[in-house]
């Protein structure tokens, strides 16, 4: 019996040793060679970089048709584990009539550590909600997109009731509605109209128009008029507004607003907390874009009627449609008291953009 046990044990050990040796020899063939010859396709890849046209433009070949002009897409490196190495904007689409499409893309931002190469994959980004891959920067603001685009990635239309608007207009057929009842509507891509509805109902008729005058890659100019009828008085106000936005760096946009009262009313000096309501003012400030696309707003202002220097500091939290901001404002930085007319005051603002 003991001899039988020894024989069986010897046979089992010999079999396991041969099996182990066989597996060691087959591992390079089964696991490595095919993986190098037939790389696994990227599940999100929708196009392949075919060539470079110039220092900022590249050509992509794809079989998908669901692209649109102005769309921001990501470039994922063909090198394993590198991930996204850049972002490009689609500026041209051509149907090649052979089942493929040619995309002309303009570089917006690229990695400082990795090159973009021919063969890298181009993919759609879901920008209808928060996308951790899409970090906040002035280069990646979506200036033209679809209604599904989250407001996080759009340029600011307004900085709040106390700070004033920017040079941006709403997209065509887009709405922005504030908590106090102001309705802004994008009549055209370059023209926005608005009115405070509760004030209209109470007889304080008002209307604002803003038109884009010029836009480039780094500058935006707009002009507009703001009309308001003063309740209980047979008088009205009319302000001419000039807006200028300029990109200062990859995370900062400067905003300049000049508002000139073409005609006003006697107590207009008491409304200095609200821009473009019967008083003339000049303001320049800065918008800081954070990684998560929230904004910090900071800047000084000067009111011609009160001859005082004021300012503001505001934090804007942005969801897909809803915006909420809290700000510390001043109409006179030398007056250390809580008074909206000639001192400091706190303010919150909320609005929906869709």
Provide the residue-averaged pLDDT.
85
What is the count of helical runs? 2
CATH topology of the largest domain: Porin
Global outline: elongated
> How many domains, in number, for the residues?
2
CATH superfamily of the largest domain: monomeric porin ompg
Largest sheet: 12 strands, antiparallel, barrel
Radius of gyration: 30 Å
Secondary-structure-derived class = mainly beta
How are the strands ordered across the major sheet? Answer: 7-8-9-10-11-12-13-14-15-16-17-18
- Element order: H for helix, E for strand: HEEEEEEEEEHEEEEEEEEE
What CATH first level of the largest domain would be assigned?
Mainly Beta
What's the architecture of the largest domain in CATH terms? Beta Barrel
**What is the total tally of β strands?**
18
> What share of residues is helical?
10-25%
Could you list the spans in which at least 5 consecutive residues all have pLDDT below 50? 1-9, 15-43
Beginning-to-end CA distance, first to last residue: 86 Å
Strand percent estimate: 35-45%
How are the SSEs placed, and which strands pair?
Blueprint: H1 2-37, E1 47-52, E2 57-62, E3 72-76, E4 84-95, E5 101-110, E6 121-123, E7 175-178, E8 182-188, E9 191-196, H2 197-201, E10 206-215, E11 219-229, E12 236-247, E13 252-263, E14 281-289, E15 295-303, E16 308-318, E17 322-330, E18 344-353
Antiparallel strand pairs: 1-2, 1-6, 2-5, 3-4, 3-6, 4-5, 7-8, 7-18, 8-9, 9-10, 10-11, 11-12, 12-13, 13-14, 14-15, 15-16, 16-17, 17-18
């Amino acid at each position: 019996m003991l001899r039988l046990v020894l024989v069986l044990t010897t046979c089992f050990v010999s079999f396991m040793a041969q099996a182990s040796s066989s597996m060691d020899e087959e591992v390079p063939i089964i696991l490595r060679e095919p993986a190098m010859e037939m790389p696994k396709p990227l599940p999100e890849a929708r196009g392949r970089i075919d060539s470079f046209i110039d220092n900022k433009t590249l050509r992509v070949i794809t079989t998908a048709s669901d692209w649109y002009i102005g769309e921001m897409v990501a470039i994922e490196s063909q090198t394993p584990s590198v991930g996204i190495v850049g972002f490009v904007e689609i500026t041209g689409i051509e149907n090649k009539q052979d089942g493929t499409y040619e995309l002309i893309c303009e570089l917006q931002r690229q990695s400082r550590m990795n090159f973009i190469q021919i063969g890298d994959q181009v993919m759609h980004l879901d920008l209808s909600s928060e996308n951790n891959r899409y970090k906040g920067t002035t280069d990646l603001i979506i200036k033209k997109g679809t209604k599904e685009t989250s407001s996080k990635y759009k340029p600011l239309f307004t900085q709040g009731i106390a700070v004033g608007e920017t040079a941006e207009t709403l997209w065509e057929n887009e709405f922005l509605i504030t908590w106090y009842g102001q309705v802004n509507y994008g009549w055209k891509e370059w023209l926005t109209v608005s009115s405070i509805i509760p004030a209209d109902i109470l007889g304080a008729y008002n209307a604002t128009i803003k038109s884009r005058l010029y836009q480039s890659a780094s500058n935006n100019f707009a002009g507009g008029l703001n009309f308001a009828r003063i309740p209980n008085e047979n008088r009205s106000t009319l302000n001419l507004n000039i807006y200028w936005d300029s990109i200062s760096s990859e995370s900062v946009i400067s905003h300049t607003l000049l508002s000139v009262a073409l005609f006003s009313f006697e107590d207009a000096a008491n409304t200095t907390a609200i821009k473009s309501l019967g008083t003339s003012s000049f303001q320049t400030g800065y918008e800081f874009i954070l990684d998560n696309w929230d904004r910090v707003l900071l800047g000084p202002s000067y009111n011609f009627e009160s001859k005082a220097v004021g300012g503001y500091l505001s934090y804007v939290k942005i969801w897909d449609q809803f915006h909420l901001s809290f700000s510390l404002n001043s109409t006179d930085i030398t007056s250390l008291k809580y008074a909206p007319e000639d001192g400091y005051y706190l303010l919150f603002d909320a609005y929906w953009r869709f």
